Amino acid sequence: MAIESEASGVRMYQPLVIPGLFQTSEYAHALLQFGGSGKTPTELREAVDALPPAASRALMETIRRQFDDE
Predict the structure, then answer these.
(1) Which pTM does this prediction carry?
(2) Number of domains the chain is built from
(3) Is there a domain that residue 46 lies in?
């Protein structure tokens, strides 16, 4: 527990899943469809359509990190 309280960050490693910022809409749809979400095809399509495009998400993440560092 002492080591955890001194940690400055958390990193995740998932060799079988592409990080969200780099997911295409087709990939995100497949993850939701086969990930046991229980959503209908229409709900899946709406959930994926609500996600910003990958390039926009990458830009938004870069901007967010800049403000977090200030």
Answers:
(1) 0.47
(2) 1
(3) yes
